[in-house]
Amino acid sequence: MKLHFFYAGNKIEFNIIYSKRKTMKIAIAPPHEITVAAPIGVSEAIIINCVKEKAPWILKKLYMIKDMEIKPKHEFNSGETFLYLGKKVELKVTLGNIEKVELIKDKLEVTLKTLDKDKIRNMLELWYREKTLEKVLEKIKYYNKYFKESPRNIKVKEQKTRWASCTFYNDILFNWRCSMAKEEVIDYIVVHEMCHMVHKDHSKNFWNLVGSILPDYKLSQQWLKENGIRMEL
Q1: Model pLDDT for residues 123-134, shown as the tens digit of each residue
Q2: Domain count, the chain
Q3: Does 8 or 6 have the greater pLDDT score?
Q4: Distances in whole angstroms, Cα of residue 37 to Cα of each of 15, 27, 52, 188
């Protein structure tokens, strides 16, 4: 038997298996098979309510499975493509005495003394970190006019599950991959975190503030949902 419900715009469908057990158990198998083992006699309404309580965890697991399936696997050879400001740029690896990374038109040129894929990846990450910091500083300076307060500190770091975060003391931390996103998406990430200087939650007032500055912010949310997995080295 299959049941389903909707959560955060997603349809979550699952199979039910009844057995002699006291508690319910949820199992997820690739690509998106959800199975719920339930005690005999439990109503469908109770099962749906119980599974709905686990919806955030279920979606997280489904996204992790999807990430494993479509996450780009780079070999860091010339001709591979990466994202920068939402556009594809082609990697060009050359040998030279001065090690550097340069964006020349649509070519991301990495020059190093000897071919070393780990070194290429590290050089690219450092380049993206620098570009992300440049971009977010530029945008924070622009959007500061909408706020009474300013960020205390602005840092770029490794963040596996967030594009950015704002601390209680208004330190804003940005994922170094942010410069892979489109300009307007970076605007959204910056404004989102700056709004957390006013509202520390995701309340209606928070989203109203985001919308008052960026009326089309949901388009950026959708872009991140569709392309976030490609923002990787």
Answers
A1: 999 999 999 999
A2: 2
A3: 6
A4: 8, 8, 15, 41
The CA-atom distances, in angstroms, between 122 and each of 26, 76, 84, 137 are 39, 11, 16, 23
pLDDT single digits (tens) 53-65: 999 889 888 877 6
Q: What is the pLDDT of residue 150?
A: 95
The domain boundary residue, chosen from 50, 70, 90? 70
**Do 39 and 109 fall within a single domain?**
no
How would DSSP label each residue in 63-113? HHHHHHHH-------TT-EEEETTEEEEEEEEE-SS-EEEEETTEEEEEES
**Structure tokens belonging to residue 85:** 């400001």
Q: Which of 126, 121, 89, 125 is nearest to 108 (CA)?
A: 89
Please tell me the pTM assigned to this model.
Answer: 0.71
Is there a domain that residue 221 lies in? Answer: yes
